[in-house]
Amino acid sequence: METIQGSEPRLPAPDKPYPVTVLGYPAEMIGPTATYAKVSEQVAGIPLKHPNPKFWFIGFTIAFSLFLMLCGAVSYLIYRGVGIWGINIPVAWGFAITNFVWWIGIGHAGTFISAILLLLHQKWRTTINRFTEAMTLFAVMCAGLFPLLHLGRPWVFFWLLPYPDTMSLWPQFRSPLVWDVFAVSTYFLVSLMFWYLGVMPDLATVRDKAKTKWKKIIYGMCCMGWRGSAVHWQRHQTAYLLLGGLATPLVLSVHSVVSFDFSVAQLPGWHSTLFPPYFVAGAIYSGFAMVLNLLIPIRRIYGLQNLITTRTLNNMACVTLATCWMVVYGYIMEAFTAWYSGDPFEKHMMWDRAFGAYGWVFWILMLLNCVIPQLLWSRRVRTHDIALFFVALSANIGMWIERFVIVVQSLHNDFVPSSWAMYIPTKWDWITLFGSIGLFLMLQFLFIRYVPMISISESRELIAQRKEGQL
Amino acid sequence: MKTPDPAPRLDLAAIRARLNGARGQQYWRSLDEISETPEFKEMLQREFPNGASEWDDGVSRRSFLKMAAASLALAGLTACTKQPVREILPYVKQPEELVPGEPLFYATSMPLGGYATGVLAKSREGHPIKVDGNPEHPASRGASSIWMQASILDLYDPDRSQAFTHDGEISTWSDFIAELNEIAREQQTQHGAGLRFLTETITSPTLAAQLDALLKKFPQAKLHQFDAISRDNVREGARVAFGELVETQHRFDKAAVILSLESDFLYTHPQRLRYTRDFTDGRRVSGGKQEMNRLYVIESTPSVTGAMADHRLPLGSGEIEKVARRIASRFGIAANSASDTQDPQLESWVSAVVGDLEKNRGKSIIIAGESQPPMVHALCHLLNDKLGNVGNTLFYTEPAEFRPTNQLESLRELVQEMNSGAVQTLFILGGNPVFSAPVDFDFPAALPKVKRSIYLATDFDETAALCTWHIPQAHYLESWGDGKSFDGTVTLQQPLIEPLYGGKTAFEILGILFRQQPIRDDYENVREYWQSQKPGPDFKTQWRRAVHDGFIAGTALPEKKPGLKTEAITAALNSNKSGGAELELVFRPDPSVWDGRFANNGWLQECARPVTKLTWDNAVLVSPALAQRNQLTTDDVVELEFNGRKLRGPVWVQPGQAENTVALQLGYGRSRVGRVGRGVGFNSYLLRDSQSLWRSAGLKITRLNDRQHLVATQTHHNLHSPERQIYREGSLEEFRSDTQFVKKSLDQPANEDTLYNTDEYKYEGYKWGMSIDLTTCIGCNACLLACNAENNIPVVGKEQVNKNREMYWIRIDTYYKGPLDNPEFSHMPVPCMQCEHAPCELVCPVEATVHDHEGLNLQIYNRCVGTRFCSNNCPYKVRRFNFLWYADYKTPSFKPMYNPDVTVRWRGVMEKCTYCIQRISRARITAEKENRLIREGEIQTACQQACPASAIVFGDLNTPGSKVAALKTNPLDYAMLGELNTRPRTTYLAKLRNPNSEIENKPTASS
Does this model's pTM top 0.90? Predict the structure, then answer.
């Protein structure tokens, strides 16, 4: 039972053909039969040979249709104005900001897996990091859309950027919305670079394996002349680690900044010092749930069980459960603070959250976010991919509802009762939400179709480490 | 319409129990909020059409405006800034008084209900843009009513009638002149036997003289008058009491105790503005004055006056006479009240009021409303006389009206003659009788029996559709005229603009009828009359003076001392029968659309009605007790059956309504109206017959299996605990014993309690601030509409109001306190607080809302990108967002209406109250040109200027001795939500009530 840093104990299990961990899970991070050649063939084969095209086409068609609906909704939005949504005074933010916070949160799992787990030498991340980084990118794209669209005059969004205009006007740096601009754009750029750097060697592999001229040319251009020389690898590794280091604080900072959009305001239900950590935990929670929701079907369809092993799923489920409890702690503290403060507005907000007009939403949130994920205490659920899929789905929807409750419920009953009102989403709100999911899935489908979705080089590293007995 | 479902019931009994069990001050906003039942919450969610999109709701306001634009284009209207022909002031001559970009003010007068109110109309580059009260005029004193403010929109209304029609065909003025000549010839031979005139109440001396002359020329012609909101009861009451028609002029500023028997003297009385000013002057506690008047109101349905009462007694309209008799008998008048049932609670109420009146002999007023029968008015005259009030708090004059008459009988006679065929030619000069005449007269059926019916009106309405001739009437801002105010002051009317649609006046029509040649226009007619009245060499000077002032000073009617016929009154009393306990129906003019004439005015339709806060609808107002008994909730559609006539409408459960009274507002459900008023509400006139002009018993109410959503600006709210430092009030007693009682109830952080440098910025120049007096605010909406006209605020329509997107910059929150059946009402106007620590400012990412060196919280429209974060962070929720294209850029006729000093805001931009910054700028420019500081009183915000109660005071806090600075040191001054340390510049003076310690405010005996 030798271990090195970053690996876990491997015990022989008499009744199983593979070693297990102390708790009895499969200890394999990569299938026992995987070899260098097999991994390359399997992963690079997906973009090159396009296996299982029926699934892809059906999935892509659905996603693309949703995306077209989004295009329609956005066109109408720009034509008519944000009044097509259900927002009003007092609830001036509705689905758009809910979606923004949700999508940004989802992105966090990717960076968490690729950066923090990289620095922590968590090797089980190897086979999923590529996919989750891509998911981060797409989620941030979807997220970035909403702050633009929700503007009353989206065509002047660039006034939020510090550029030298003729009037010498700058953004107002005390506003968290300006911080958002920087946080989200930094996040997107770093994620993009990190992801692209990682995918470069694999694009070279695809180029090398490609049979047709155009594929060779296109993949060849995309891998930027990667030759796999030792110098390339040395620089690649340095840059990768550096970017990993750069991305790490972003995991914590981006959603902290997003939470400032709320906590800087003095609104009961928003004005809370708890928000930054609470939002980060929630982000990672929903992100992991989204990764599970995406990976579980893909793993089955493309037969990737040997690379994305049950152990990987189990680990992800454990992170989900841990962050779930952080979020639950957040909920408890929110209620406690409201009660302990003695502030009539805070107390009313909390009371209204649970028993007011949106009370039913809150209790669905509690069920989806706090109760159902407790199934993850069960090892059988964690290792059963279909069960895990549904638990993750519950957490995903739950986290969306949580954002909704924070945004809408806090606004609808604020200080002066004469202004209180309900927010009822219109069909355009719903179309935009599902349209953004369509955009996300469409990009996801294009990604799995054209880019190796598992890091070939890093998987081969795992095999090497296993050969050397380091795994 | 949604599929009818079993409507959830409000458990009114539980609410009542809850309110009775409540301790301390507890405010509630509406029935919804105190119910808090799960069923209610369910209903709340279902009430809103889930997923409803803004394009699902029939003809939207936007498509309406498109149609409006298209129809104008077809009408060939290209420009609307035509100058009046007379006294035109061309720029090439550059007359001294006209400077481009500078406004000009003209004194003129607005007629409503026959009476003229002096106004100052503001004109910019030749088009009127705003109407305010004429500070010199005795009926206005500078104050405005909502109708004055909204009349500017009526002027530019693209739906106004734009063509002469004859038998439905478009005709011309010259054709009509030919017709008039024909009529004159024809009637000449028969001495006018077939000639009839139907007018509204008339006070215009010119018109009176013309009619006199006409009736002399055609001796058998007859004049009939009819106003749907008539003052017949007042006239008949005076006739009973004095044997002649006299008008009562009240001096509310001199009264210490006021008892109103269903008189809404602050809102519907012809002298409303003056009375409000006087009443609130007597109520304001300031400086060393620690006295205030006390108002008792007995009424069946909550009115503006009722909401101001220190003691309000909800009582069926038919029961009020009994109370009046009871009070009278206490003063030794044989009022035959012994037979009435004794009700101990009512009795103690009456005793307390009588005691108070007794103590304040010569300093009290008893006033009865138009809806009360003549006997009550007669009793009031008697009581006022007994109490020695005559000559002190009130005096009598001749009526200001021309030939005052019993208008109901007048119309009845006309209809009989129309039906008998005696009427050949009928001139209807305004009033829309087809819509508003009592339903049993069946005026619409009688009208086609008249050979020639000629109708002069601003709109092509229900009456126009049935008349042979329709003449578009010129708006009062388009024509010359005159009139008298309630006290008799002669008030002149001059036009600011040439008639936009070629409208004519009654003067021109009657002038031709009387004297065919030469054809005189309105100016010549009016001037000629006055010349004949005041001949002499200095007429020209006098005329110029009168037109300039807008009225002739010193023409108020002299006091008259009519002899009271006590025996006649008591004799009449004896013949009176008492009403039963059955359900009664009362009719009220609508607080916004009045008798229906303002139905096409979007500003009025959208402004939340005082008390109910309903917009864009009328409703069947029922009491909570009745709702409980009949299983009714707000929005339930009911069928009202009365005298065999049936009417359907949605229910509004109104706290404070008398138990067995169902109230209907008139003026809705217009069938022939412009696009704004179409399909709004239901027509209550369909139940109003000549026996029940105001009130009648014997109503049946049946709930139908249907619901219709009523839209109010403030309904779905939850409990407002006094912990929220929003509304503060107390009694005069409390104030006298501890003037600091308001401050003590607050938890306001001291300015020094900060980590930052408190001297970081000192406001050393001007420091603008506002003070709003909650004691005197009557909740009349004048400020709201003045703001609307001043600041180019768009109308959004019912469906957008339903989504809480109304755009008004100032709102009037109304809170209830106390028992369901008889709550106390509190109004609170809420404009932008202009916080020194404005939460909105720091969250704007583009610096579109910033603070200026004088403490104004500015909103920069062209920098705003519309994140709406400022609104989210505003604890007062006074910011308004332009969610769709609310402003109307297209309708040509609206273009000259906009105030050119204020941006017309576009879509996607936040807006809010600016303290009328355009007025501050104008004053600043003037002051700087003259090298001086802005003087105290030089700037009035639009809301302040309009307020009849002078409840809003604006000014510079740094000017020593400024009114607003003094008010900020008033012990009653407090900041709304001051504990948030926003340090608002707008603060409030807590409301003081003056309750009689002998009365405990309890539900009425009946419940």
Answer: no
